[in-house]
Design goal:
The protein contains three helices and two strands. With about 100 residues, it is mainly α. It has a two-stranded parallel ribbon with strand order 1-2.
């Protein structure tokens, strides 16, 4: 037995295929079956890309509008700065009160 053989079967060295990882994440977030994995993946990607778009637009009003499109509850007179990341899975659970500066 070589010196490094004991690490060959360590669990952290084994990477599951992407489909299995997406299915595991979907189950953790309450989605089940193949249809649930697709819905989870679509929801995640939609929110992820709108979040990226909100990070790069130059005007805070557009950022607020994009986050509202993602179903984030945002009050009046809110300023959202650059590189603010709001949850990609359940943005509808996030509430930002009136007059908040992030």
């Amino acid at each position: 037995m070589k010196k490094n053989d004991k690490y060959r079967d360590a669990p952290y060295t084994k990477v599951k295929p992407l489909s299995a990882r997406v299915e595991d994440c979907a189950k953790e977030h309450g989605y089940s079956g193949p249809r649930g994995s697709v819905l989870y993946g679509f929801r995640f990607l939609k929110n992820f890309y709108f979040n990226i778009l909100a990070n790069i637009v130059p005007y805070s009003g557009f950022r607020v509008a994009l986050h509202r499109f993602r179903n984030v509850t945002i009050g009046k007179d809110v300023l959202i700065g650059y590189n603010v990341t709001i949850d990609n899975i359940y943005p509808e659970l996030v509430t930002i009160e009136e007059g908040v500066v992030q």
